[in-house]
Amino acid sequence: MANESRPCPCDIGDRFDYGGRGQEVQVEHIKAYVCKPPASTDKAVIVIHDIFGWQLPNTRYITDMLATNGYIAICPDFFVGQEAWKLSNDWASFNDWLKTRDAGKIDKEVDVVLKYLREQCGAKKIGVIGFCWGGAAVQHLMLKNPHLKTGVSLYGVIKFFEDRSSLLHPTFFIFAEKDDVIPLEQVTLLEQKLKQNCKVHYEVKIYPGQTHGFVHRKREDINPQDKPYIEEGRKDMINWLNKYL
User: Fold this and answer.
1) What is the mean pLDDT of residues 133-152?
2) Per the annotation, which location comes first and is thus the protein's main one (predicted)?
């Protein structure tokens, strides 16, 4: 990894001042943020948060954006009540913190959320997107969960699942050219493994000049040079979901 003393650069970027248009609900043992589109639909997207948890305004902003684009969108608390990472925390403790929050051990929670979406929201076609920690979780789910139709992994930490590439569903991978935690060599290696082992449609896209978190941790109004790439990343994400859901 590029910088062991700073194992995740998720603090780069801006914390939105955003309240959210959806509502918080209790889904069995999990709390979740849900936003629904004006018109009824049978399409839904599960949003998997980054290390800052399900209440981060940035993630709720993207969840609401999905609803605006016609999807039932839900962002569950995949830390299940455990504290999200805080910027005031000591990065030296990050790896110990991470050990109790495994992106590959969310299957029980995903099953609960899928049941809720099908039975309470009438969803029949369900996809998933995720950021950083959540992006790695998307890759995990695309490797094993038969009930999801498609996924978008946004700067998912490759090293969590780098040895597995036999995806079950079409998956779109978004990476930043200047990501301190995901070197381009890792992205190249991932592409090679996908080419060798993957039988479904996938795409890997690198956005020039961008840093980790650019799709949801940067604001177009104060980063004008990044605006085209932020908008492109969001548009690509929506277009992929539209294609496969």
Assistant:
1) 97
2) cytoplasm
Q: Which residue do the tokens 């309470």 mark?
A: 120
Per the domain annotation, does 104 fall within a domain?
A: yes
Domain with residue 187: its CATH number is 3.40.50.1820
Q: Which domain holds residue 220?
A: 23-87+94-244
The whole-angstrom separation of Cα 14 and Cα 233 is 17
Q: 223-244 burial, b for 16+ CB within 10 Å, e for fewer?
A: eeebeebbeebbebbbebbeeb
**Does residue 3 fall inside a structural domain?**
no
Domain-embedded: residue 13: no
Reported as a single tens digit per residue, the pLDDT across 51-102 is 999 999 999 999 999 999 999 999 999 999 999 999 889 989 999 999 999 9
Strand (E) or helix (H) holding 63: helix 57-68
Report yes or no: 106 and 142 within 8 Å, Cβ to Cβ: no
Which neighbouring-strand residues pair with 32? 25, 76
Point out the residues that are catalytic.
132, 179, 212
Residue 102, domain member (yes or no): yes
